[in-house]
Amino acid sequence: MRISLILIISFLIIFLSWMPSVSAHGLSTAFLDINEISPGQATIVWDSSPKQNGLKLIVSPACKLTRTTTYLAEDTTNRLECPKTISGYTLTITGLGLIVSDVIVRIHLSDDRTLSKILTMNEVSWTIPVQSSQFEVLVSYIKLGIEHILSGIDHLLFVLGLFLLCVTLKQLFWTITAFTFAHSITLIATTLGIIQISSLAAEACIALSLILVALDIPSDKRLLKQLHQIQYIGLTFIFGLVHGLGFAGALIEIGLPKQALPMALFGFNLGVEMGQVLFILILISLVWIGQRLGTTTVLISRQISIYSIGILGMGWLFERLIILL
């Protein structure tokens, strides 16, 4: 009876994780590139899939579009005209929902500034800043980092796997520290172009890491043996390097401002770490609650987590290998 219940709940979690998209980062993302070729004159290009998602760009009344910008096909180019400059005016995206959950807006201004913003169903409008201070860039990219890690089911499941493998808080601290240090290295190196690896290959390796970590987790924590500390941290460090490639791919898609590159890179990395720490604190709280509900609750929750990590990892690996090959 217990095994049946665990399997049913596990497959329910997996089914919900796959609806309505198989993407590990939630629903589909669209991209909107705006290039100010001269003050107040800009080209607008949508470039993403799927087609016919019904997204529409609305601009401030003082500005005008040369034609209605409905995202019905890839590479749809339009023109935006605003008095003097496009800075200071507001962009609004309508049509966000089940098909497309967010839009990454990337703007290159005529003064050579580069700006990025993720618009979601909860935040559909953005006023293009006239000037962006270093602090504003930092805050903006911290938010982007937090949003990325908390929407990345594959990254969160791996952190969950590391959490389940640790016996003590001390071991958890050193494990997460190794993971953090490793993915920071590849995040920075890949973003700066020092290393170049296929994003699809990196995503496939991330899925494989979920399978491997799930295979290492015993169903009962009492059966968990403490590995040699150096060996344990070494394995986590290697997996961290792989996950850093995934973080870098997302950051490259979002774009980095040339005028504040170090600050943006630091802010995104800091945001990822903040989101990761928040997730771990939630896990610790859930364990504390589970222990007060009884040993059976903790055991069932642990087994559900193992099944979910492993099966989702296999699904993502299969999906990504098909795309890669």
Strand order of the largest sheet: 4-6-2-1-8-9
Q: Please indicate the percent range of residues in DSSP E strands (runs of 2 or more).
A: 15-25%
**Backbone CA Rg:** 22 Å
Q: Considering DSSP H and I runs of 4 or more, what fraction of the residues is helical?
A: 40-55%
Mean pLDDT: 79
N-to-C span: 41 Å
Number of helical runs?
A: 8
Overall 3D form: elongated
Taken in chain order, the helices and strands follow as HEEEEEEEEEEHHHHHHH
Tally of domains: 2
Estimated structural class: alpha+beta
Q: What does the largest sheet look like?
A: 6 strands, mixed
Q: pLDDT under 50 segments (min length 5)?
A: 1-23, 68-75
Count of distinct strands:
10
